[in-house]
Specification:
Blueprint: E1 5-8, E2 13-17, E3 23-28, H1 36-45, E4 50-55, H2 73-87, E5 95-100, H3 102-113, E6 118-124, H4 135-145, H5 147-161, H6 165-174, H7 182-192, H8 195-211, H9 218-223, E7 228-233, H10 241-250, E8 255-259, H11 271-290
Parallel strand pairs: 3-4, 3-5, 5-6, 6-7, 7-8
Antiparallel strand pairs: 1-2, 2-4
Helix pairs in contact: 1-11, 2-3, 4-8, 5-8, 6-7
């Protein structure tokens, strides 16, 4: 038996699986509760031999602990660095990193900071470069770049959040969550429908677009290629095929693969997607540790 613990505190929102362990795995997420099914599956697949912590972003919690403050991508990275320093004071314990979307970029930055401790880093559907061919990213960029629009959208979302739970659940199920699992739908109603959460998501997105307009640090990734793995999926504007091809071109020795089972970028929003990606991650970790 195992237990999932959600800690909703001022500085860290995290989900923890504790065990007597030889390795420590940290998962970079946005809102932790979306990844509950994934983390549970991964913990089971690893046989309970790895201690897992899924850590979310600052001010993407139910309560506005930060008093309306907005956090950039770099500030979120600094938050994760602070967490690792607090949590892993024993530097003899090997650290594995798993990141999804922008969490993949954050994981690489953590690896850069803790190179002596990190033994493996996995990026799932990695958002590594701005996709200038994506209309969705263009529109999100315009929205995030306008303080007025960001405020209006966040206020509208917050209005939905104060409706009776059955009403907000119905709205989510008929809009963004048509094919979502119960876990994901509950996470959306609990966390996304908050003014401070949506404002922070949009503000962070703006800083992501600014940072990821730069050329990736291919030299660092090439030097670290034996400890890096990426998984892409089809029809994903956040991690499109031309980025997969560019990584393959720049670092042919790196483990880069494409999932073709039909799971989307938001794999954590379905039970099937969570299980499939957990199986993939568990297989990578087992193979890497056994090498």
């Amino acid at each position: 038996m195992y237990q999932v613990t959600l800690m909703n505190c001022r500085r860290f929102m995290r989900m923890i699986h504790r065990c007597t362990y030889c390795s420590y795995l940290e998962i970079q997420t946005g809102i932790v509760s979306f990844y509950k099914d994934f983390v549970e599956s991964l913990y089971q697949l690893l046989g309970g031999r790895v201690s897992i912590t899924a850590i979310g972003h600052l001010s993407q919690t139910t309560k506005d602990w930060e008093g309306g403050r907005l956090f950039s991508l770099q500030e979120q990275i600094d938050h994760k660095i602070e967490f690792v320093r607090q949590e892993l004071q024993n530097k003899d314990i090997p650290l594995l990193l798993v990141g999804h979307s922008i969490g993949s970029y954050i994981s690489i930055e953590l690896y850069r900071k803790f190179q002596d401790q990190v033994v493996y880093c996995i990026g799932l559907h990695p958002f590594m470069m701005v996709n200038r061919q994506s209309r969705q990213q263009f529109l999100i960029g315009k929205l995030a770049g306008s303080r007025l629009l960001s405020t209006l959208v966040s206020s509208f979302v917050a209005l939905l959040g104060v409706l009776p739970s059955r009403v907000s659940s119905f709205v989510v199920s008929k809009t963004i969550g048509k094919s979502w699992s119960r876990t994901a739908s509950e996470a959306a109603c609990t966390y996304l429908l908050k003014y401070h959460v949506m404002r922070n998501i949009l503000f962070m997105a703006l800083s992501e677009f600014e940072k990821l307009s730069e050329t990736p640090d291919w030299a660092f990734m090439k030097k670290s290629s034996r400890k890096l793995s990426f998984l892409f999926c089809m029809d994903d504007h956040w991690a499109p095929m031309h980025v997969f091809e560019e990584i393959w071109k720049q670092i042919p020795e790196m483990d880069v693969s494409v999932e073709r089972e039909g799971h989307t970028h938001a794999f954590c929003c379905s039970e099937a997607g969570s299980l499939y990606i957990a199986q993939h991650v568990a297989s990578l970790i087992k193979n890497h540790i056994s090498d």
